[in-house]
Amino acid sequence: METALKAEAPQTAAKGRPDAVPRAHKDAVSAPKLPTLTRDQLSSLGIACLSLTIGVLLWHLVTSVNLDFYINFSNVPSPAKVFMAFVAHIQTEIFWTHIGVSMRRILISYSIAVVLGIGIGLIMGRSKFARAFIMPYIEVIRPIPAVAWIPLAILMWPTEESSIIYITFLGALFPIVLNTLHGVEQTPEVLVRAVQSLGASRWAVFRHVVIPAALPSIAAGLAIGMGVSWFSLLAGEIISGQYGIGYFTWDAYSLINYQDIVVGMLVIGLLGTASTAAVRAITRPMLKWQERTR
């Protein structure tokens, strides 16, 4: 009898302690929840995969028959050849150097464009004088393509690296400025007046009303600016670069290496898509209020 009581005593004491939860139960409670895809997201992902598969099959078909009907596909490499060339390149150090140099240039120039672009757009949106003073410069410089800036940028900046970053910066700047300006202009005036009637200062109105209302347009401008920055970067690398994925693609064209041309194009597309997706992922937490109002 005493032995049975002694055996039950630790069990009873363990039940009374809050820290006596089984380890498996603790792990199950503390384990982080993995993100799950909704049915609509899975459907969109499936359609995207199907679309890409059809595109690759059509690419294989027109290159296998050497289609020459207005558009000539006789010199276009097949998907298999491009894939084999890509596998060979990712095993070399120089290929990753090209990608790393391009990513570094994008990071530097895009970061500067984000800071200046959002700041200029906010100021122009809230000040009629600033808008009237700055807008002529934007309207004159914005239509100039990146390629046209290359000779002057080389003359202006001390190194080719700084000139490429400058050209890339210009490409990202204007979409960010204009979208930020549009977002500020679309701020409901009734909200501004309501906050002012409660005694809010101009800074409080700007911080708690104008900026949150402009965030959707700012996020769109950031995504568009990332795509344009890649276009501008490649133009600079093709003309005056020694490294970078744009230089890699142009060098392949100079050597009449068709597989590498397509490899460079596809890598540019993948990097641009990944960069834009990263921008959207970063800005998504700031737009959660939109989901709650739907």
Automatic annotation (TrEMBL):
Membrane topology, record value: Multi-pass membrane protein
Region (Disordered): 1-26
Biased amino acid composition, Basic and acidic residues: 16-26
Transmembrane segments: 42-62, 107-125, 137-157, 163-184, 205-231, 261-282
Protein name per Swiss-Prot or TrEMBL: ABC transporter permease
UniProt keyword terms in alphabetical order: Cell membrane, Membrane, Transmembrane, Transmembrane helix, Transport
Keyword Transcription regulation in annotation: no
Domain ABC transmembrane type-1, residue spans: 99-279
Chief place of localization: membrane
Keyword ATP-binding attached: no
Organism of this sequence: Roseobacter sinensis
UniProt-annotated location(s): Cell membrane
PROSITE patterns for this protein: ABC_TM1
Family from the record: Belongs to the binding-protein-dependent transport system permease family.
Source domain of life: Bacteria
